[in-house]
Amino acid sequence: MTDNKKIAEQVLRAVGGAANLKDATHCMTRLRLYLKDDSVPKDDEVKKISGVLGVVRGGQQYQIIIGTNVPKVYDELCKLAGISATFYHAGLEHSTRDERQTMWQEDKVKVMVATNAFGMGIDKPDVRVVIHIDSPDSIAGG
């Protein structure tokens, strides 16, 4: 069984701890970290962490390839780093989607990893950045 918390602890330590983490998100298989000082992590050391499949540097991101359990590692990483975060996509139960939308609107969660199913949930005055991993088909997100 994969120990997602242990992976997250080791990754966080390897990238310089929460103090070096500006922001974090993930895609289907990778942690996508924005670091204050990207010279801190040593790629060879990060690759040695059990559960890490590889490392990619690009687009101001330090990407750590985890595989399909990346959402669980991401959740643990956010808890350890003190980042309030969750995810949202069309495959969630309707009640869960409503709950997470409300958490976002009421500022109970600061980072939302989402597909375009999140819709107009980003229409808030305190949103600093929206990161698109892939360009949407239109500016309306459809």
Structure description:
It is a single chain. The protein is of the alpha+beta class. The protein is 28% helix and 21% strand. It is built from four helices and six strands; from the N terminus they run H-E-E-H-E-E-H-E-H-E. It has helices at residues 4-14, 43-47, 70-81, 94-105; strands at residues 21-26, 30-35, 54-58, 61-65, 85-88, 111-114. The protein has a four-stranded antiparallel sheet. The chain has a two-stranded parallel sheet with strand order 5-6. A hairpin with a 2-residue loop joins strand 3 (54-58) and strand 4. Helix 1 (4-14) packs across helix 3 (70-81). The protein is globular, with a radius of gyration of 15 Å. 23% of the residues are buried.
- Give the rounded overall mean pLDDT: 86
Total number of helices: 4
What share of residues are in beta strands? 15-25%
Quick one: how many beta strands?
A: 6
Radius of gyration: 15 Å
N-C termini distance: 38 Å
Uncertain spans? none
Largest sheet, strands/sense/barrel: 4 strands, antiparallel
Shape: globular
One letter per element, helices H and strands E, the order comes to HEEHEEHEHE
Summing up helix and strand content along with how strands pair, one would put the structural category as alpha+beta
Biggest sheet strand order reads 1-2-4-3
- Helical percent range? 25-40%
